[in-house]
Specification:
Blueprint (H helix, E strand, L loop, with lengths): L2 H11 L3 E5 L1 H5 L21 H4 L2 H6 L1 H11 L9 H11 L3 E6 L5 H5 L4 E3 L2 E8 L5 E2 L1 H6 L12 E5 L8 H13 L2 E5 L8 H4 L7 E5 L12 E3 L3 H5 L4
Parallel strand pairs: 1-2, 1-7, 2-3, 7-8, 8-9
Antiparallel strand pairs: 4-5, 4-6
This protein binds zinc ion.
Length: 238
């Protein structure tokens, strides 16, 4: 059987699907992959992006942090692609129990999905460090210099920076949903970066599917591996 048909069959048979997505899901929407060769990590900035996007840098060099953040991580004008839209359809049909994502662009919610677990946070949530007041992404990206609260406090995006821990509730819920799934679709991630590699070990279900342009270390334990662009795969699914 052709691999796409096989995937279709697994989706049709399954009742509790969890989708685990990495940067490859967003690239089809024109968002640069942090770690690809032409991605953020090879752009010329005074510091390496891993350093700028770290907790200590945020507090010590807030102005430079926000310069980079607004320049490189603003994806407010980006739209969901065929992958997001397909997952919305699966959730509406009651087959998809959750999306666990490493992306911070909010595109799954923009596509309509409700059960989205954002391991690395979201650019859409921002809080004052002094009074905890909520600010939307427009406020932060449109602010001049460092975004400040009305109380004078500094606003911080709810994005997990280097040196910061993942949100415990998000992580626990993701583990629970993955362990209860009958089909786990891992897509657009090389599974080399924490916590992706650790999380799929909790899967106890029948079928693990990996869809990624390159091979991964987990291909051997998968029921089905498709090495292709996500768009090529998802546009063929019903
Ligand atoms: Zn405040």
């Amino acid at each position: 059987m052709d691999k796409i048909n096989e995937l279709q069959k697994l989706i049709n048979e399954s009742k509790k699907i969890v989708f685990f997505g990495g940067a490859g899901v967003s690239t089809e929407s024109g968002i640069k992959d942090f770690r690809s060769k032409d991605g953020l990590y090879n752009m010329k900035y005074k510091w390496p992006p891993e350093m700028i996007l770290s907790k200590s840098f945020f507090y010590e060099n807030t102005k430079e942090f926000y310069k980079f953040y607004k320049d490189k991580l603003n994806c407010l004008d980006k739209e969901p692609n065929i992958v997001h839209n397909y997952l919305y359809k699966l959730e509406k049909e009651g087959k998809l129990t959750a999306i666990v994502t490493q992306n911070i662009d909010g595109l799954h919610q923009k596509a309509g999905n409700k059960k989205v677990y954002e391991l690395h946070g979201s650019i859409y949530r921002n809080y004052c460090l002094r009074c905890n007041k909520f600010y939307d992404a427009e406020y932060v990206f449109n602010s001049k210099g460092e975004p400040k609260c009305k109380c004078g406090g500094l606003i911080k995006p709810d994005v997990v920076l280097y040196q910061e821990n993942l949100d415990e509730n998000t992580l626990e819920e993701s583990i629970r949903l993955i362990s209860e799934a009958d089909l786990l679709i891992v897509a657009g991630t090389s599974l080399t970066v924490y916590p992706a590699s650790g999380l799929i070990r909790y899967f106890r279900g029948k079928n693990l599917v990996i869809i990624n342009r390159d091979t991964t270390d987990y291909d051997q334990i998968a029921s089905l591996v498709i090495n292709d662009n996500l768009k090529n795969v998802f546009e063929k699914l019903d």
